[in-house]
Design goal:
mainly alpha; two-stranded antiparallel sheet; two-stranded antiparallel ribbon; about 5% strand; elongated
């Protein structure tokens, strides 16, 4: 350590962040009794940090330094990430080219990923210390990241400017924070690309002219928005209520006790209630019918499509035991002959105005439980489309919306109503 420090011009090999609590240093809040990573840890698990975006995947909440082959460069990477998260630390604030605003954890995870690629590429080139890095290494790494190559080294395609900028940024970060690093650092005179910014090196076009993603053409947007508004306006409340009922019923059935022995009266009582009320038995979904056929049921069996578990649930039993079928087959067959079968949900749906507004139709046909879930997903997507189009919110902002965020409408005038989201 002493030899490396002297060769690299490092006077004090002790890291300024030794023993630092990462969450405390970065200003992150975590639940009580939650372990906060320390600087010396090779994996910083920040999954429990309060307030991280919903759309941020777990992989970006866990900073893994073990992927860097050179142990000394792991320390360099840790020091850089702390500096990016906590730029007001006294060891960072004095650096002339350091950032003054903390970066988001997601951005730091991206910086670490590219830095890992950069360091491991250097190691593969035979570089053992950062003081050995020269301009040609920086140029070669940028070229390495610029192209997608085949196994034989042939260029197949060129990557976008975002990848090139990230590659240049990794190099520039190691230069800009040089004085901070305690165990290894580049030479003072290293200045690749004549000091150009990462964006200039990547040849990124300025975004002042227009958005990178072009506006959606009206021939697509208008029918899409019309369909989304019709679904949310006509089916939204019905779908939400039905989904809640189906979810509550599913949870209730899971809590039912299992029956060790058959009490035929419990099932026949349920069958009698179906007969008296002319209520169809629950029909199985097609996938379950196919499963029964694969398990040896005959195609002409009158009970092939009857949900036996539904009968058991109505009798207060969690699951129908197939051994009971020999005793109960006859009464079940008699009942299905009289009342038939139907899907369980929305059998008597209310009517709504059709999309062309010339008639009233049931808002939905009867549904299986899985179809209720699918319908809820369709209407949720329509809601997201309508909200995004009318508010201009980004995907990450939409993901932060919570139940109850819709505030009561404000009537500003007889013809003007304002809708707000908290």
């Amino acid at each position: 350590m002493t030899d490396l420090a002297a060769a690299g011009g490092i006077g004090n090999p002790q890291s300024p962040f030794a023993g630092v609590d990462i969450c405390a240093q970065a200003g992150f809040s975590v639940p009580p009794r939650t372990y906060s990573p320390r600087f010396e840890d090779d994996i910083w698990d920040l999954s429990e940090v309060i307030g991280l975006p919903v759309e941020m995947p777990p992989s970006l909440r866990r900073l893994d330094f073990t992927a860097i082959a050179n142990p000394a460069w792991r320390t360099v990477a840790k020091e850089l990430i702390v500096a990016l998260l906590a730029p007001r630390h006294r060891a960072v604030a004095i650096l002339p080219r350091a950032l003054r605003t903390p970066l988001h954890l997601r951005t730091c995870a991206g910086r670490l990923a590219e830095l890992t690629s950069w360091f491991n590429w250097l190691a593969a080139q035979g570089v053992t210390a950062l003081r050995e890095v020269r301009d040609h290494h920086c140029q070669a790494y940028l070229s390495h990241r610029r192209y997608i190559r085949s196994a034989t080294g042939e260029i197949n395609a060129e990557r976008g400017p975002g990848i090139r900028r990230a590659a240049a940024q990794a190099v520039v970060d190691v230069i800009n924070y040089r004085e901070l690093f305690s165990v290894d650092r580049v030479e003072i005179g290293l200045r690749p690309w004549a000091g150009a910014s990462p964006s200039a090196v990547a040849e990124m076009r300025p975004g002042r002219d227009q958005n990178k993603t072009p506006p959606l053409d009206d021939t697509v947007l208008r029918p899409l928005l019309a369909a989304a508004l019709y679904l949310t306006g006509s089916f939204g409340d019905y779908t939400a209520a039905l989904a809640r009922q189906a979810r509550a019923m599913t949870l209730a059935h899971r809590r039912l006790p299992a029956a060790a022995r058959l009490d035929p009266d419990r099932i026949t009582s349920v069958l009698d209630s179906h007969t008296r009320g002319h209520v169809p038995l629950v029909v199985l979904a097609d996938a379950h019918i196919r499963d029964r056929l694969a398990n040896g049921w005959f195609p002409d069996d009158p009970l092939l499509a009857v949900s036996l578990n539904s009968l058991a649930n109505q009798a207060g039993i969690r699951q129908f035991n197939q051994q009971w079928l020999s005793t109960l087959r006859s009464p079940i067959e008699n009942t299905v002959t009289q009342v038939g079968t139907a899907k369980p949900w929305a059998r008597h749906a209310d009517t709504v105005l059709s999309a062309n507004r010339d008639t009233h139709l049931a808002w939905t046909l009867p549904l299986h439980g899985g179809e209720v879930v699918a319908l809820a997903g369709v209407v949720r997507t329509a809601t997201i489309i309508a909200t995004a189009a009318l508010s201009g919110m980004r995907a990450s902002e939409l993901m932060e919306l919570r139940v109850g965020c819709r505030l009561p409408p404000e009537a500003l005038s007889p013809d003007l109503v304002r809708y707000r989201l908290a």
